[in-house]
Amino acid sequence: MSGIRSTGFLHLGNYFGAIRNYVRMQEEYTCYFMVADLHSLTTHPDTKELKPNVHRVLAENIACGLDPEKVALYCQSHVYETAELYLLLNMLAYKGELEKTTTFKDKVRQHPENVNAGLLTYPVLQAADILLHRASLVPVGKDQEQHLEMSRNFANRFNHRYREVFPEPFAFNFGEALIKVPSLDGTGKMSKSENQYATIFLSDSDDLIRKKIMKAKTDAGPSAPNMPMPDYIENIFLLMKLVSGADTIQKFEEDYNKAAIRYGDMKKQLAEDMIRFVAPIREKAESIRQDQAYLKRIMEMGAEKARISAAATMEKVREAIGLKYY
Ligand code: AMP
């Protein structure tokens, strides 16, 4: 089970941190993937762009290879049981631990004018999404590790206080470690909302991808062989490892170690490999986005599958708590 907020355009971080794993998991597991439209209201109270954003996230997920026939692909707000479980889990979440959450503190800093209770209880809503399907594997990027730990805590508290209902959910990645796709300016991670020019979106045109990559931070190059790599150069290699072939990476690593690397050439190569990766996704997503009837069908089908699983869990939850009086 996993979700992506409908707060804008999807980017390489979403793809390599999350969607790539979704696409592999759909072959092996029963999967629930959703557009976290309710979560997006915690930071985006203006809903003018909500509908196109929800459509975009769905279209981009499908364009990346997610098959709505194989998985339940749905909108969070279409499954009302989410709100019920969220309410019940709120009784097991403590103000102190919520206030200490890194993402909460970051968001308070970014939006001091809108520190709402939904933002504080964001990890509880996320736990509700996951536990609603009694999911145990949650494919997410590294930025979500702390939230997953909180989901585990809420599940364990519920199980101890009432009765064993939930398996412990864990962050999941097919590689060994969770991934953080760095931004192109050498600071932080790619993100939907911050430093747009340092993030490569799945909808970026070929030209824009070239421009963004050519502007990525580099320097005059190593002054001696086998020097340690600065972070921002390591980041360019990391991006190359995501989209380029093994020979290409080896060539530039050898050039670096011989102190003979030309960053201009490396970035040109990276840009062309990136375009080869992004362009087919962009084009496919664009044509899916135009087909509103198809998107409606997908959403209905996904919600139907998700509601069956959610209703079964909520029966167990109400019974465990004792909310059954006849
Ligand atoms: P969000 O866009 O915050 O709703 O995140 C959706 C998914 O993408 C989550 O699983 C995140 O962990 C993942 N994600 C977002 N940004 C990155 C990034 N820069 N690197 C790796 N994963 C990311």
Describe this structure in words.
With 326 residues, this protein is mainly alpha-helical. It folds into two domains: 2-172 and 291-321, Rossmann fold; 196-285, Orthogonal Bundle (Tyrosyl-Transfer RNA Synthetase), CATH 1.10.240.10. Helix content is 55%, strand content 6%. The chain contains 14 helices and five strands. The chain has helices at residues 12-25, 37-40, 50-63, 81-90, 95-99, 102-110, 117-120, 122-131, 145-161, 206-214, 231-243, 246-257, 263-290, 292-321; strands at 2-5, 32-36, 72-75, 137-139, 170-172. It has a three-stranded parallel β-sheet with strand order 1-2-3. Strands 4-5 form a two-stranded parallel ribbon. Helix 1 links the parallel strand 1 (2-5) and strand 2 (32-36). Helix 4 crosses helix 14. The longest helix has 30 residues, at 292-321. It is globular and about 80 Å long. The model has no long low-confidence stretch (mean pLDDT 96). Adenosine monophosphate is lined by residues 4-5, 13-14, 17-18, 140-141, 143-144, 179-181, 189-192. Adenosine monophosphate binds next to strand 1 and helix 1.
Please outline the helices and strands:
Elements: E1 2-5, H1 12-25, E2 32-36, H2 37-40, H3 50-63, E3 72-75, H4 81-90, H5 95-99, H6 102-110, H7 117-120, H8 122-131, E4 137-139, H9 145-161, E5 170-172, H10 206-214, H11 231-243, H12 246-257, H13 263-290, H14 292-321
Parallel strand pairs: 1-2, 2-3, 4-5
Helix pairs in contact: 3-13, 4-8, 4-14, 8-9, 10-13, 11-13
Bound molecules: adenosine monophosphate (AMP).
